[in-house]
Amino acid sequence: MSSVKVEPSCKEQIGIQRSQIAVVIPTRNAASDWSALASGLRMQCFPLSQIIVIDSSSEDGTAVLAEKEGFTVVRIRKEDFNHGGTRQKALEYAPWAEFVVYMTQDAILAGPDALDKLVQPFEDPEVGMTYGRQLPRPGAGPFEAHARLFNYPANSCVRTYESRKTMGIKAAFSSNSFAAYRVTALQSVGGFPSDVIIAEDSIVSARLLMTGWKTVYQAEAQVYHSHSYNPVEEFRRYFDIGVCHHRESWMGEAFGNTNGEGLRFVKSEVRYLWPDKWYLLPEEAARTAAKLLGYKLGLYEAKLPISFSRKLSFFPGFWNNSTITR
What we know:
The protein contains 13 helices and 9 strands.
């Protein structure tokens, strides 16, 4: 008589029950990513109904694909999507959850225990948030590969508010492409803000640290996730980062500005390219100039017409919100 084989990844590997965890994934036309995304999620052995897809009126059948998987699907209008507000609203569909994992549609889980490893730090009751390591996607070019290697190193790190003294603003860094939150901690700092253009994850991370919670970079929890941006796209992304830093100036006051971190990134990128890819150094210089110009313009967005900011922004829909104030 043959026995049923139980995969080790399907056993409870941690002190936290999977039944306490909701997984939230905002989507918009995710059909091209769906096979890899769904396959990675199925490997985790999480109850499928606890995976909540917030779909922004996809036109490629994403919502139907998610329903066929058995995921909980919430449909919203694409104009109602907001990086912070939508993720916060998703909690209404999982009132039972003690922990919530946020992913993006193009973040592909790298192993069958990726989610378990991501939430493992919550065994320490003082940990309010964790985020995992993002690896370059297969076939990634040198610029996108270096960005992931620079921002997501191989070693894990526990952070407190004191970490700002050695890490500066990097202490508050996080990414909702693959992050998890203790719901009580998230709610204790007001949840995700709905009036920010970008970096809702780092804003919450900073607030958690400032109110006494620990945050954890969990390098053993991994996804494949990277983007190939051209210099124009880099400009637009960094314009939005500048807008965020202008509007959330309290972060710089509490943790320090970004100047040192930016210079460290440029030096690291040059070392990464030299000497084998020396021919990419002119492009590296162009990318750096685009980022710097975009960021500086973003810092002065209050002096720009909203119509102009909309054209410069990576997320032009943000500027259509009638609640934007300056």
